[in-house]
């Protein structure tokens, strides 16, 4: 179902639009609805007009992550969008790289083995994230991010090709029906066995726009399970399964355990990172989204997606042996 403009508001702001949210957009975040409506608008611009109160939902202010129900009237202010060809197209080498990263595809979704260093989406000075690149590589296709990975985290990133797949997968994420497994190297000797971390996380944005997360009872419930796989050079190659998908969850929970993720330049151990760089050639965050398991069509269509540990990280383990 397409998005229709209910009417234009005339007078002082003739270009203001009032848009009725179609029923099939129920559950979609306000920022993603606006990004689909304002084709070509930078994500940073969408966040700006929402924060400033220029966007209204049924006459009231709303946050960017507000979940629409369908049927609301959204006030959309006039914005200047890039003219065709004005926004720099991503280099052909990046388009080739993102297409080569596709590890699974069917009629409902595709999965990328996202390289470290590529953001999930653009914004905050990043012109092209994974979703912008795959859209540029496949113009005319309907492609939506199901979830996100940190820029420095490699591994599985799922993109929906159909609205029905997007809403089902997002529901599964909320209900714990999407099982995520990560591989990481933690600094120091993690105790053997399985460790459950159930510690709430609070996200804050520092001056300059940098996001930081800390443990805080007033934050959102967050649960991670750590399982030592083997020791390497005095450090711990570890499997992590998460029940929730909070920003920087594994990284902050690892610090809470006293064993930060190797190569983490935001929350990690600077001296340990330096030694690992010199000894084992670790040049980035050692965190990889290795597998995803879920089922669509009321459980009748199971998916098991895998992305092997990339060569740069497996090489670190070899040099630590």
Task: Report on the architecture of this protein.
- This protein has 8 helices and 17 strands.
- With 321 residues, the protein is of the alpha+beta class.
- The strands form 3 sheets. Strands 6, 7, 8, 9, 10, 11, 14, 15, 16 and 17 form a 10-stranded mixed β-sheet that branches. A 5-stranded antiparallel β-sheet has the order 1-2-5-3-4, with no helix packed on it.
- Strand 3 and strand 4 form a beta hairpin.
- Helix 3 crosses helix 4.
- The longest helix has 13 residues.
How would the global form be characterised? Answer: globular
Distance between the termini: 56 Å
Structural class, by secondary structure, is: alpha+beta
Strand and helix order: EEHHEEEHEEHEEHEEEEEEHHEEH
Mean pLDDT: 88
- CATH level-four homologous superfamily name of the largest domain: Pseudouridine synthase
Reported for the largest beta sheet, the result is: 10 strands, mixed
Tell me the strand percentage band. 25-35%
Total number of beta strands: 17
Radius of gyration over C-alpha positions, nearest whole angstrom = 21 Å
| CATH structural class of the largest domain | Alpha Beta
CATH architecture of the largest domain: 2-Layer Sandwich
Discrete helix count: 8
Low-pLDDT segments: 9-14
Kindly state the percentage of residues in helix: 10-25%
Number of domains: 3
Which topology of the largest domain does CATH recognise?
A: Pseudouridine synthase
